[in-house]
Design goal:
Elements (H helix, E strand, L loop, with lengths): L2 H12 L5 H13 L1 H18 L10 H12 L3 H39 L15 E7 L1 E5 L5 E5 L2 E5 L3 E4 L5 E6 L2 E5 L3 E10 L6 E17 L9 E3 L4 E4 L3 E7 L2 E8 L1 E6 L2 E6 L3 E5 L2 E4 L9
Length: about 300
């Protein structure tokens, strides 16, 4: 699907004119094209804002007061009737014009807000260079940088530095942060985005620093030009992959890393070492214990 086709489908979806197949194609394109995902989210927010534009109406009783005034100041039945029709229709045109002008001004203001990147989620200030648009498959609880809490179910969300995602459901949820990076958050798990940054020249997300507060996550990352690897930290160690699939589980006082493909560099207070595909390690209080056998992570 081309990007222009995805945008056309999105506008059609606002009026409920897309089929389930077209909706599935649109959702798939959003997961594959980061640029479109960001633009589609802006369009959805603009559409939502338009739903809240006040609809102006003629003040109650105004038309009748105009009719009474005209009738009282004129004489002659034909003259009265002509004047009443003329004034009433003129008043309707006047207020209809004001209504359209008010809606147009509100729409123009909304476009200005979206174009300047100041449209804020629930009043949350999100610096453009420290925000990425992610696609969520599953259900998560989102805690914004300003501590506002919201629920995300199978939709796109902005993720900024300081964002926290918590899985309170029984099923895992996957967050496609970029077209090359997906993080699956298991049940009863929580991650926190310490730093998110996008390069101003290339528009590539070059910093994604995540802290695993509790539970376990699975990471699938395919490195590409100009992009830096995700940094996934716990209290015991920081994991930096090199185009790989791996999982990290945190328990009190211990971090367990298993690698399915590629390799992961592990930084601890006592040193740095690599864990290759098919291997696993446990890090606790500076000590490192390698697994005898590591189970493959589901792809």
């Amino acid at each position: 699907m081309e990007c222009s086709e995805a945008l056309d489908l999105l506008y059609s979806s606002f009026d409920g004119q897309v089929t389930p197949t077209e909706q599935a194609l649109l959702d798939a394109h959003r997961r594959m094209c980061f640029s479109c995902a960001a633009n589609l989210v802006k369009a959805e927010r603009f559409q939502e804002l338009l739903r809240h534009v006040p609809q102006l109406t003629v003040p109650r009783g105004l038309e009748q007061r105009i009719l009474n005034r005209v009738a009282g100041q004129t004489s002659g039945a034909m003259f009265k009737a002509a004047k009443v029709r003329s004034i009433a229709s003129g008043a309707q045109r006047h207020w209809r014009g004001l209504s359209m002008a008010g809606a147009a001004l509100a729409a123009a203001f909304a476009i200005f807000i979206v174009a300047h990147g100041t449209l804020q989620d629930l009043g949350t200030h999100r610096p453009a260079r420290e925000t990425v648009t992610a696609v969520v498959r599953g259900s998560l609880e989102d805690i914004g940088p300003d501590s506002k809490v919201g629920n995300v179910i199978g939709s796109s969300i902005p993720i900024s530095s300081g964002e926290t995602l918590r899985n309170t459901s029984a099923a895992p949820a996957t967050v496609a942060i970029t077209p090359h990076l997906a993080v699956t958050i298991d049940a009863a798990s929580q991650i926190r985005f310490l730093k998110v940054h996008t390069n101003a020249d290339t528009s590539v997300t070059d910093i994604i620093d995540v802290h695993l507060d509790r539970g376990s996550v699975r990471v699938r990352e395919s490195l590409h030009k100009d992009a830096s690897a995700i940094h996934l930290a716990t209290d015991q160690a920081t994991m930096v992959p090199t185009g790989t699939v791996f999982a990290v589980a945190k328990s009190p006082g211990m971090t367990h890393l298993t690698v399915s493909s590629g390799k992961v560099a592990v930084f601890t207070p006592s040193g740095v070492f690599n864990v290759a595909a098919g291997q696993g390690v446990r890090v606790a209080r500076g000590a490192v214990l390698r697994d005898r056998s590591s189970q493959s992570i589901p792809h």
